[in-house]
Amino acid sequence: MIDKKHIQYFNNLVGDENIYSDKAHLIAYSYDATRERFEADAVIFPRDEEDVSNIMKYCNQNLINIVPRGAGSGFTGGALPSRGGIVLAFEKHMNKILEIDMKNMVAVVQPGLINMDLQRAVEAVGLFYPPDPASQEYSTIGGNVNENAGGMRAAKYGITKDYVMAIRAVRPNGDIIKAGKRTIKDVAGYNIAGILIASEGTLAVTTEVTLRLIPKPKMTKTAMGIFPSVNDAMESVYKTMASGITPVAMEFLDNLTIRAVEETFHKGLPIEAGALLVTDVDGNLEDDLNFQLAQIEKVFRENGCSDFKIAKDEKEASDIWFARRNASPALSVYGSKKLNEDVTVPRAVLPELLEKFYSIADKYNINIPCFGHTGDGNVHTNVMVDGSDEEQVKIAYKAIEEVFQATIDLGGTLSGEHGIGLAKAPYMSMAFSDEEMNLFKDIKKAFDPNNILNPTKMGLD
Ligand SMILES: Cc1cc2nc3c(=O)[nH]c(=O)nc-3n(C[C@H](O)[C@H](O)[C@H](O)COP(=O)(O)OP(=O)(O)OC[C@H]3O[C@@H](n4cnc5c(N)ncnc54)[C@H](O)[C@@H]3O)c2cc1C
């Protein structure tokens, strides 16, 4: 618990209406999308960058922990105040689009802006911001940048880091830094924006982001391929990507996932199929889209695809996407406890990766349904067990460790999207050497020598 005099200081600084320290509100800000929960001593809504700087300087001098928070939709506990202190929330004041620069195709935004609000605003003027996490309706640009969020369009358009041109941020000592520029090229000095992206609020508080925009493609088409085995589908993924066609999305569901969606939603999915691939292509000409789909169909069929369906209209496209979008909730048919990971490997080793996961499931006699963004080599791996059975839960954690090891052995990473936070901190030493962890810790010390900014996250403590 921090001293009342500190709360009074913050009250004086930002005004009563911009600080919560009552129990009800502290509980409301104690969650994210994990099941963990930690209460802060106060939640503060800075009005501008100067407030952020003053708050941080004071916290640094008085050794008060600070946790920046977007929408709290993170899956790894990044926004949870695990050691109490102050939560800095941006949804009230620092949530605006400051500028859309049409000539340079750039948007300048505040960290609390909701991803979808940005997408709508730029699309209204014919531009496009591709990163579209499934949480796009509520997650914020500050959270997206600090987790380096990806989405369904990453196979073609990349992820948040590919659109960040510059970041304004405040270091724990109150210093305001400007990292990056509104230029396509910038090779002067260290790439500090690159270090801040995916830093999970452990190095500095993001106060403004300059994002690259692109022209909006005029049309999109959707198709689905049905495969007898996961192996055939995985072979098709990397062969399609290497064929000269770059689909917007290349999403995958395995047999267990198809069965779960069908059992839950009764959509007439092919429950005998080994796997489904859902793909989108986009562009400006109908002929171009048809050409892309014909090429994809060719690669799919050469690799065992038994049925290839192209959506005739938006309704059919949305029916095809339904299974993929509802895969995660449907998996509860396999157990009340889900350990959901988002490991990522180079695309060409996806067939081996999936094979390893299914042999881990066989070894422990549990279900590990998998689905995800296979166009990016990113697989949502779901270890499902009965949460009321302690033995099963122990087994699930053992299985997860083996899932991580298999991923690392194949040159992959612990997380392609959700970050490390608290949830994956114990596994960092599997993925990084002592020397690499020491370098991370040195970088953390250079920004935050007193370890007041989001402590306990990313295995840095
Ligand atoms: C249903 C659902 C679907 C999801 N789908 C996807 C998906 O498709 N792709 C994907 O990548 N993720 C996905 N996520 C995870 C999550 O939405 C993303 O990680 C998102 O980027 C988090 O944004 P947020 O605003 O909720 O941030 P929070 O969860 O509040 O915070 C995330 C991290 O960013 C830090 N942070 C937030 N704001 C700032 C700031 N201004 N300065 C410094 N640090 C800051 C926090 O301290 C924390 O470490 C999903 C989550 C849910 C619940």
Describe the structure.
By secondary structure, the chain is α+β, with helices and mostly antiparallel strands. Among the domains are: 4-89, Uridine Diphospho-n-acetylenolpyruvylglucosamine Reductase, domain 2, CATH 3.30.43; 97-215, 2-Layer Sandwich (Uridine Diphospho-n-acetylenolpyruvylglucosamine Reductase, domain 3); 219-328, Alpha-Beta Plaits (2-Layer Sandwich). Helices cover 36% and strands 20% of the residues. It has 16 helices and 18 strands. The strands form 4 sheets. Strands 15-12-14-13-17-18-16 form a 7-stranded antiparallel β-sheet, with helices on both faces. β5 and β6 form a beta hairpin. α8 (230-241) packs across α10, α8 (230-241) packs antiparallel against α13 and α13 (350-364) packs antiparallel against α14 (390-409). It is globular, with a radius of gyration of 23 Å. The model has no long low-confidence stretch (mean pLDDT 96). Bound molecules: flavin-adenine dinucleotide.
